[in-house]
Design a protein that fits this description.
The structure is a single chain. The chain has a single domain (about 5-190), classed as 3-Layer(aba) Sandwich (Rossmann fold). Helices cover about 30% and strands about 15% of the residues. It contains 6 helices and 6 strands. It has helices at about 20-30, 45-55, 70-80, 110-120, 150-155, 180-190, and strands at about 5, 30-35, 65-70, 90-95, 135-140, 160-165. Strands 2-1-3-4-5-6 form a 6-stranded parallel beta sheet, sandwiched between helices.
């Protein structure tokens, strides 16, 4: 069975935001879907999260799809980076991911510590290419946490399909209960209708 794993954002729980809708939609389409619960989500430590995620490597194959949100995007990419050479998943969807450059401005010292933890050592995006058959990166043009440099990094370095939404913030508004771009991307990846090249920025 094709399976989807969703790695949430900082402080998020499985019933937050658009996660339940994505799970319901994917299950109705015949996928097995799990929204992961990771250690101390309010203070996501890279070592603890990656230790919890690493067991997934043994079952990840071309019928596996990953969805990341915010720090969950960084987790997704580091998990892919850890896959052995020759292993590949069906696809990954990144929503609101500071994959290369987070916004440090206006952050508290505690928030900066979390960012520094995840950015050290820097993630080499080119190492991820070839570990996922397809990648879609979804951004918003008013996301205060994700500088626009990340858009180009995903397109040029990850070879991702880039989708930019208008005024969706960090994809964590309480009334943002659906995000069809996520499910459409996975369905397209799984049935072979995924775009052949990234959308231009």
């Amino acid at each position: 069975m094709k399976k989807v794993y969703l790695i949430p954002s900082r402080g998020a729980r499985p019933n937050n935001y658009w996660y339940p809708w994505v799970k319901s939609t994917m299950e109705q389409s015949g996928f097995a879907m799990t929204i992961l619960e990771l250690p101390d989500p309010d203070k996501p430590k890279k070592s603890a999260w990656m230790k919890a995620l690493m067991p997934l490597k043994d079952e990840m194959d071309e019928d596996t799809y990953l969805v990341g949100h915010s720090v969950g995007c960084h987790s997704t990419l580091r998990l892919l980076d850890a896959l052995p050479s020759g292993r590949m998943i069906g696809g990954a969807v990144l929503a609101g991911g500071w994959v290369s450059v987070p916004n440090w401005n206006g952050r508290s010292e505690a928030e900066k510590a979390v960012l520094n933890d995840w950015m050290t050592p820097p993630l080499v995006l080119s190492n991820v290419v070839g570990k996922s058959k397809n990648i879609t990166a979804i951004f918003s043009d008013d996301d205060e946490f994700v500088p626009r440099e990340n858009w180009a990094a995903c397109e040029k370095e990850l070879k991702a399909q880039v989708i930019v939404k208008h005024r969706f913030g960090h994809f964590e508004a309480n009334d943002l209960c659906e995000l069809p771009e996520v499910t459409n991307a996975i369905l397209g990846m799984s049935n072979g209708t995924f775009p052949s090249r990234p959308f231009p920025l």
